[in-house]
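Private note to self, pasted from the team thread so I don't lose it. Backbone tokens:
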């Protein structure tokens, strides 16, 4: 049996969360280890799926560019699940990362992926903000690194080239804060992986994008045994109409004069100009 489905970006995030939550290493860490969540919308979807706790959304890409939240919310961007307890750990990131090991899991999102399995995350603050200061520790501590990311994050070319092209202090002007890219290494989970982890099906994307709320959507064919395809379709129907994950009070985005402006560079809104001046 084969069917055709379309997932909007928020729906895909919810599906990816279900797939990531079902990973054996994630379930093992939930029972006997630790799971660290570095904030982002897809990561928040995983946290909400596993423990019902949303995460503050700080950096984001909106129609106005690479922005951050306007809300003054202390912490709530980094979450730790350990021994049945769930807590935000923004005030002790280095301590938490320093205690992670091979039985633990780190869940961190990506802003870009390539066809070679490369992934990278945007950083807009000096040193990448507090999370940026511990990324090396995340990747070197020996924990399982899970990167949940939708197919809309695929870029043409290679992550290496994107990393070289970006740079927060290189930009003469940016729609929102200028960002750099830091490469990530881990197991990427897309909506394809989610469905194939949960059911005995094959998934083939046949189109990307759409209109009227389906911008960035994925249309794909799901094929396999009748019973498995039916179960996959039933799950997809439960997430239709899903909205963006995360802590709702963190959704409003920054404006000129926001408390975070002093830590960002290149932003045309902060500069008060939408023009490139003194350029050839």
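Design output:
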């Amino acid at each position: 049996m084969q069917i055709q489905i379309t997932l909007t970006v928020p729906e895909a995030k919810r599906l990816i969360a279900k797939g990531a939550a079902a990973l054996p290493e994630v379930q093992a860490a939930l029972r006997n280890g630790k799971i660290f969540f570095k904030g982002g919308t897809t990561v928040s979807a995983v946290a909400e799926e596993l423990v019902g706790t949303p995460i503050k959304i700080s950096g984001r890409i909106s129609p106005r560019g690479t922005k951050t939240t306007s809300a003054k919310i202390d912490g709530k961007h980094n979450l730790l699940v350990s021994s049945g307890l769930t807590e935000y750990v923004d005030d002790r990131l280095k301590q938490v990362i320093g205690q992670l090991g091979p039985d633990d899991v780190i869940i961190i999102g990506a802003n870009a992926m390539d066809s070679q399995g490369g992934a990278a995350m945007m950083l807009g603050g000096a040193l990448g903000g507090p999370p940026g200061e511990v990324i090396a520790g995340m990747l070197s501590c020996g924990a399982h690194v899970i990167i949940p990311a939708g197919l809309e994050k695929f870029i043409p070319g290679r992550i290496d080239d994107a990393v070289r092209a970006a740079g927060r202090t290189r930009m003469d002007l940016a729609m929102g804060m200028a960002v750099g890219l830091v490469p990530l290494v881990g197991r990427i989970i897309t909506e394809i992986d989610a469905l194939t982890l949960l059911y005995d099906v094959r998934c083939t994307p046949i189109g990307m994008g759409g209109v009227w709320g389906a911008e960035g959507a994925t249309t794909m064919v799901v094929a396999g045994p009748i019973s498995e395809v039916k179960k996959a379709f039933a799950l997809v129907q439960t997430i239709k109409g899903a909205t963006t994950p995360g802590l709702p009070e963190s959704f409003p985005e920054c404006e000129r004069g926001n408390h975070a402006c002093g830590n960002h560079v290149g932003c045309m809104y902060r500069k008060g100009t939408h023009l490139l001046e003194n350029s050839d």
